[in-house]
Specification:
By secondary structure, the chain is an alpha+beta fold. Helices cover 36% and strands 23% of the residues. The chain is built from 3 helices and 4 strands; from the N terminus they run H-H-H-E-E-E-E. A 4-stranded antiparallel sheet has the order 3-2-1-4, with no helix packed on it. Strand 1 and strand 2 form a beta hairpin. The longest helix is centred in the N-terminal third of the chain and has 24 residues. The radius of gyration is 21 Å and the shape is elongated. This is RNase H type-1 domain-containing protein.
């Protein structure tokens, strides 16, 4: 029997394979994240969903680490504020826009990505412009998608 969680975790990590260690650490992270969701967002999740989310996260992370992978456009946890990119209707173009303020450089930036109904990249554009130092009047600049 172990006297505390850290001692137990150290024992597990010292006796398992790299793959098993990754699974244990990811599960610990998912449990901690679930705890934070309960405390801060009053959002409850079942044990099965927490374990499934940890497995999905580890799978996506592992794929992302391989140099030949493609981007996964899936949220890791339902309701996270993340979204799944959806192709526009046939014969349409979707333009995704993102903006940012770089206070340390007294600049703002805007990025646009245009894709067709098959998800093929049509155009990419980024613009950076100077802004006056210390301006306080800016609004939150969120990512948005707009079908054209």
């Amino acid at each position: 029997m172990y006297s505390d969680f850290i001692t137990c975790l150290e024992c597990i990590l010292n006796k398992t394979s790299l793959k098993e260690r990754a699974e244990v650490i990811t599960l610990c992270w998912a449990i901690w994240r679930n705890r934070n969701d309960i405390v801060w967002n009053q959002r409850f999740s079942s044990v099965n969903k927490t374990v499934a989310a940890a497995k999905q996260y580890l799978t996506q992370w592992s794929i992302a680490q391989s140099r030949s992978s493609t981007t996964l456009l899936q949220p890791i946890f339902e309701g996270d504020g993340d979204f799944i990119w959806v192709n526009p209707q046939p014969n349409s173009v979707k333009v995704s826009v993102d903006a940012a303020v770089f206070e340390d450089k007294d600049a703002a930036g805007l990025g646009l990505v245009a894709r067709d109904a098959d998800g093929m990249l049509l155009q990419v554009k980024s613009i950076v412009w100077p802004v006056r130092s210390g301006f306080n009047d800016r609004q939150d600049l969120d990512s948005t998608d707009q079908d054209c």
